[in-house]
Amino acid sequence: MTTPAVETINLSKDYGDGRGCRDVTLTIRKGEAFGFLGPNGAGKSTIVKMLTGLITPTSGEAQIFGHASGTMEANRRLGYLPELFRYPDWLTGEEVLAFHAKLCGLDRIASRQRIHLLLDEVGIGSRGRDRLKGYSKGMQQRLGLACALLGNPDIVFLDEPASALDPVGRHEVRELLARLRGQGKTIFLNSHLLEDVELLCDKVALLNNGQVLMEGHVSDVLRSKSNWRLRVGGYTSIAAERIKQVLGLNVVVSEQPSDDDPVWLEIELEDDEQIGLVNYILIELGLTLYEVGKVTSRLDEWFLQAVSGLEHRGERR
Questions:
Q1: For the chain, what is the domain count?
Q2: Which are the contacts of 67, defined by CB distance < 8 A and separation ≥ 6?
Q3: Cα 96 from Cα 87, distance rounded (Å)
């Protein structure tokens, strides 16, 4: 059996003020992109800091590729971009990376090649020779990502890696992370940008008040419901009654501009195969079926529904 990239067992951190996390158990396989979600103050950054060895757990276990988190063996395998970081603004981008290359133990020739490669990959390029005082927040975030990747890690922990980027920059970072995943790297993405998680990640976990509420494959989360919209001409309530009789499902009229215009119907099915029978019933009743389309659920809808009505510690408390 392959050793997981990340494994935690009842991982807990008690700060004594109600914050931290408790009994977090996760398994992330090698090569997966894992999205870690939760409201502000949920404890996501605390868990990342324990996995990267920056803070010590109160109890429980955490391992990186089979090595205890915080050990030299574990740290050699990981890269880390914290949410809040600051580099001296009198240094150039190349100088920041050169300093980190020494920390990674790279020799001078290897580090020079690696630095130039990464500056291009993260979109800084020749601006790497400029001093950081002239960098925008987005460029500093790109530089931080380059630092995280400098040692060619097997797993990279990213805490809000695109929060300061514009839409073009976010797209470029997503493309870079997708390439890394294609190379077999493991990605641990802590982000409030649910679109990025949805497009990039294989699995996702939702944390609230220091505990994991839900965990699963993104495809399963987005497939939790089968919602369809149909544009139908000549619709009457008889069609809804017939569908109710045969399938036990309710039909909702979402749009009906006027008596002569086609209407939009919405229906939630048990599975996708039922849409064929719905279409057959409508045509059998003499209705005109103009358009049929599945409504794709979004990760932000799942997130909002999952935390709706729950108390959570955050900026408003």
A1: 2
A2: 73, 74, 77
A3: 7
